[in-house]
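Fold this complex.
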Amino acid sequence: MSSPAVTGSDTAELPLFRHHRLDSIISGSGTTAITTARLLADASALAERLPAAEQQLNLCERRYPFLVGLLAALLRGQLVVLPASRAAAELQRVAAQPGTRYALTDSSITVAGIERVDYRPAPAGHLWQGPLPTLPGAQAVVELYTSGSSGQPTRHRKCWGELVTGAELTGLRLGLGALTGGYVVATVPPQHMFGLEASILLPLQWGLALTDGQPLFPADIAASLEQCAAPRVLVTTPLHLHGLATAGVTLPRLAATLSATAPLAAPLAERFEALSAAPLFEIYGSTESGAIATRRTVEGEAWHPLDTVQLQEQEGRWAASGGHITTPQWLHDRLEPLADGRFRLLGRDTDLLKVAGKRASLADLNQRLLSIAGVVDGTFFLPTSTAPTPRLCAFVVTDGTPTATIVSALRQLLDPVFLPRPLYTVASLPRNATGKLPRQPLERLYRACQPGGQ
Amino acid sequence: MSTELEHAVAALIVETLNLEVSAAEIEPEAPLFREGLGLDSIDALELAMAISKQYGFQLRSDDSDNARIFSSLRALSQHIAAHRVS
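Structure:
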């Protein structure tokens, strides 16, 4: 099967579903089984209830309502906007965009200033009439955001063609064609790029069923997998894999495991392959580019770009293009090219850090910190640490405002994973002559803040 | 006034999550997640692993129970007391 590169001017219509029929299972596990026809009925009924708007803010927490909302938006020609986090400030920012008139939710969350539409399945008797639908490849379907050193978020719109091609290339690499009729259990939310690609697009395009939940604890992940018939695919992160390997829960036999958001250590990969009796693959990618490369961790550290995806170097930085990546995208890591187009990762751009698999720009975090009343000066800092999930701390110079007040304000602005642990109040920050904060003085400051520090 | 188990669980939380507060500073009835101690779901997972290792049982999340079990140190300790094997 050839894998054509997608161009922005692609006018072809592409199927919403591949390897699915109207009567195949698209969602469910255990006692629930939802067919593609039922999904389309739910989506078309929801589509009729949506306000006229350019954009839908999709805040559904469960995967099936998220998908119904996404399809309903597509049926109405609306773009689905996916906030980078659930911090109140981020939801406000997205809600304030012209064209975002409503939020679709399956919980009690509200977003000030816009209408709220509650997810509901279709009323009994509401059926989907017609064949499986298609969508123009050039139709913009989702918008995601990243923050960079400029402080302003960057928008990334994905068109249907890019998402389909990305799913095609990933599925070919992973051999998903052999798993038609299987189930995907995911521990990641559908609103982030990895969850969108792996827990929504892969099932739609490879004849798999998605499952509703987002299990966290090892026993819950095992139970979710038990509730699905084989073949089973687990979409997850190193943190969850570590939990599963440590807990010693019994897993049913899997067909494959897919991990992303942070690098996975080879010993853990080996343990997990033994536990799951299945190959474990990692995906390397970004919000901007989508999936770029894969590796089977136990085979070595080299990454293998997806077919037709290319990496090019320019002045020490690398960009990915080709395949589903319609515009070349800068990568945020330094690479070492190896033979056969493979590569090794060397380390991140210094401004971009990851905490528990979530990416943030240090400059952006600092801007937010400095925007808080009572903070005279401040910076976040990620100490070198051997803890399983290293956390940021922060140093602030205050006007006397209590740290609890500052942390409370931060909670409105940031994904909770980036909240400082702890927030140290200091007399001053070790800025140099140009106002920068080099790492070494910060490390000294960090040590001085520890109990027993000088 | 906290029980012996509450103190042990508080110590486990502080040690597992590398927190700056001392075990004695964790109010038994104060929220653990979002407000109060400000823990998040990553912490919940790491805690679950530590609890399983220390007390010999697996934490499950049940829609109705999860919020309650993790609502405070007291609630978590009661849950552990009811399910512990070691």
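The helical segments of chain B are 4-17, 41-55, 63-69, 73-83.
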